[in-house]
Amino acid sequence: MIGAPGFNSPPTMRKPPPTKKGVATIPDIIESLPDRGRSCWHLGAVWALSQFQENELFLGMYPDEHFIEKPVKEAMETFRKKLAEVSRLIKARNEGKKLPYYYLSPDRVPNSVAV
After folding, report:
1. Whether pLDDT at 6 is above 80
2. Helix or strand or coil: residue 6?
């Protein structure tokens, strides 16, 4: 389906999905799932696209000086301080957890969606 979200579904299927509820069998499902090679290819692509670049800029990092006005610089500094506080809270909350959750920590959110 073009334009439909594919959450919790494989990126490719070898057979079309069933059109009626209750008629799919386990063998039908297994035959529909992607083979090992295709699954590995998609896993590799997702891994590669989810890595940070060496020169990655994260939220609040602005290397180019586009603004010189004092109120703007103060607002940027306030924003950076709030981001640092959120990062600190997330790190504290993750202390001692088996599976810490860092995905929305500002120090790990890229400043751009460029791939």
Report:
1. no
2. coil
Q: What does the angle CA 30 – CA 33 – CA 36 come to, to the nearest 5 degrees?
A: 105
The values of phi and psi at residue 53, to 5°, are -80, 160
Given a contact cutoff of 8 angstroms between Cβ atoms, the answer to whether 83 and 58 are in contact is no
Task: Kindly report the three-state secondary structure assignment for every residue of 13-48.
Answer: CCCCCCCCCCCCCHHHHHHHCCCHHHHHHHHHHHHH
Rounded Cα–Cα distance for residues 38 and 44 (Å): 10
15: amino acid identity, one letter: K
Residue 1: which pLDDT band, with cuts at 50, 70 and 90?
very low
Alpha-carbon distance of 26 to 32, in angstroms, equals 10
Q: What is the pTM assigned to this prediction?
A: 0.63
The tokens for 47 are 């891994």
Domain residue spans in the chain?
1-51, 53-115
| Terminal CA-CA length for the chain | 24
